Protein 1
Amino acid sequence: MQTRYVDLIQQSFDFPQEEFNLDGSHLEFHGIPLMNIIEEYGSPLKFTYLPKIGENIAMAKNWFSKAMKKHRYKGKYFYCYCTKSSHFQYVLDTALKHDIHIETSSAFDMDIVESLKKSGKVDDKTFVICNGFKRDQYIANIARLINGGHKNCIPIIDNYEELNLLSESIQGTLNVGIRIASEEEPKFEFYTSRLGIGYKNIVAFYKKQIQDNPQVNLKMLHFFINTGIRDTAYYWNEMSKCMSVYVELKKICPTLDSLNIGGGFPIKNSLAFNFDYEYMADEIINQIKEDCDEAEIDPPHIFTEFGSFTVGESGGAIYKVLYQKQQNDKEKWNMINSSFITTLPDAWAISKKFILLPINRWNEEYERVLLGGLTCDSDDYYNSEQHVNAIFLPKYRKDRVLYIGFFNTGAYQESIGGYGGIQHCLIPSPKHILIDRDANGDITTKLFREEQSSNQMLNILGYDVK
């Protein structure tokens, strides 16, 4: 009977996979021996594998390029990174090396853009697409960028008042987009997105506030689906309604020339994950071209906004199993040396699943367990994997330490968890390691931040500590 952990994985999935391999009984991630990282830096820790960011950007560009060539699509393709997925400098620096553009969500995002411009990593050719609900500071920061000469900054109108607020602050011609308030999936608690302007109201809004306004050019229609780009009847139905609006607008608005497709591609959250990215890119381009050909209008330039897809698969978190608690006949709790609420807030807040694998001891027997964090909160746990609705790990042994890793955690976790701030039960944010490759392809590592200290937290809380 095969009872080793490696046997379980090989029986359940195609393994090894592109990013996961074994060196004996130790896991490698993109060829990185993770036990070496643990031996050098300890645990808990978070890491970011920077080359994966560029790899995903290149793949998406290739999928859309092939689709446009296949369908003789005349428009251009622009890859945008959604900064809200991860605002860290090392992420933006890495992504911008691959000829991309930026999508922002709030006022402080614009300060990041200006910092990147000063350092030469962003120039006036870089499109800055400004999404989100805009009020005083965000409006002022957008105006400062445009008035400073950045004409490729396109604010996306989210509500009826924003256009006037922008017009009053910006000198000269203003290029804008309009966001469609798409209908949500039937399982949602509400019918229509709170963001954007309804399908039926967009043309009327254009005629009333933009068509005869010499200061404003409508350049872009922004289409966003909260669930992301997926091959579902719901997605294609919303896309069809979007194209109906685009066609109607284009016939009366000669300056309209771009379609912004938000929502993004999904990322791998299981060893059984299967998504045909190339097919989706091809079908999107095909459907847009067919609609435009039928209406006898030029097809739009395509902008995509990929946040999680850009950065999500670059990240990981590693923990040590400290102790096992047998709470009843069936439930064994493996306690980790950190907190899921602190380090993986998506896992407990919205039940998001990540790829979970042991780092060592793959050739030993496995058992079914639950995973608990250090806090006193009953929600601080991670208890199921999508493929079997349970967690199986090598058996706990007090004399043989077990390390576990969560993978593809690079998007949102730090910002949702309040990086550098007060953490639940004052469990500190772990140290963060940046992993890269040099010109020869050899692995390099760098400590980005040490584990959060008690003094850092106490100072935030107002205690007089040094």
Protein 2
Amino acid sequence: MAELREEARPLPREAALARLFRLLPPAALAAETAAAAEAHGRTLAADVASPADLPPFPRATMDGYAVRASDTRGADAGRPARLSLVGRLPVGRAPEAPLGPGEALALSTGGMLPEGADAVVPFEDVVEAEDGSWVEVRREVPPGRHVTARASDVREGEIVFPAGHRLRPPDLALLAALGIRQVPVRRRARVAIVPTGDELVPPDRSPRPGEVREANSAALSALALRDGAEPEVTAILKDDPEIQRRVLEDLLPRSDLVLVLGGSARGGRDFAAEAISRLPGPGVLVRGVAMRPGRPALLAVAADPAGRPVPVFGVPGHPVSSFIVYEALVRPALLHLLGGRPGPRPVLPARLAADLEAPEDLELFARVSLAACEGEPPWEAVPVPGDSAVFASIARADGILRLGPGEAARAGEVRPVELLL
């Protein structure tokens, strides 16, 4: 058995990740092509450039009349500008002729402006002759009013999404509008989730005295799916380091990241830590991270039969700890493998309802619920009671409030809350 690395004190989270990333090449997952319409949540493997201008022609943003703005100069209700009405443009058709001085063309929202027109006057600012031969414009419009200019959204050749961008629903709409049907993406990460513990039984079994239902894998599997990965949850493994080692070694060739749940803390039951240390490869890199909850987290790198490095995490068995370790350590590792860019997390400013203080040497991830309140901001962050072994304390939380080591936050302070989504 390889000797387990013992830290004099838990490593700061960023230092722990830096130690892991030194052994993992970024963007290690292979590139493939995916249908753009089905690429929600996928990470781009290369820049995506626009093949055309968007919009491809100047468009009206209001129902009204296309005009030359100079023909409306000084127009008002007492002195309207009379223009010849040269026609009505059907929806989805191109104008048949340029618009000359003193002319107007009726068109609908989204309609293509004729050459020569540079503004649209809304219907409510115009009086039209009964025979449709002329219109009187009763309000001056400047050039560009109620018009979306050609290429004002995207120009041909412009990079619309860079490599590493994770595609969201509005991104798929933009790709469709540009006629982009295929996109280069990283293949989905394969995440093995391995629950361990003699006391655990599957959720569909009634536990006997001393047993508990295994539930952490349900949350971690959902988190992996949220992050665009393909989770594989194994059967529950007994507290036997050799059995665990064999299962983990079998998983390495078909996994990009492995999560071993339970058994990572120092003590008489750190079977998973021992099993991970027996895997081929660089071995255990970090044992203990300066965070609460999640201090017993273990970071390692194993090698599959082809020598490919596979990150392996020892995830604490307490439900809150496992959730926080995933968000704070596992998710950044997934992004690293995908070559993804860590985008902003959904954050809501909230007024703290009670004092909070982080331990002197640990980063604190405090669970809070959000309650509507009067004033600004209109939300109050209420710390959720319960230690890291209490399932309800994370299920009842709406977000996480982070404090650095030794940092204190007092009731009434406005702090950013990372929303749990």
Protein 3
Amino acid sequence: MVHLVFQTRNGQQFPLEAAAKQSLMNAAVAAGIPGIDADCGGSMVCGTCHVHIAPQWRDRLPPISDMEQALLECVPQPHPDARLSCQIPVSEQLQGLVALIPSAQR
């Protein structure tokens, strides 16, 4: 299991243990993390699972696709560290990752 933390903008933390190979979004939804709406269920069409990932983790994530980048430009308050959590597979390389939940998903 991989230890992950979802954190709100006000600092409230939601730690969880996730199985490798599932998406970060699926782990958050299964754990009932508030603020990860995941309306499309991971189809990469809604952007309601986006999170902010600190720059030091970028090299451990898969590259952002053109489609993901285009969708992230349409989320409320676009951010350079935003990623769709449905596009991030959980792996041992993400042990200790903190994903910041934006103040709004819509």
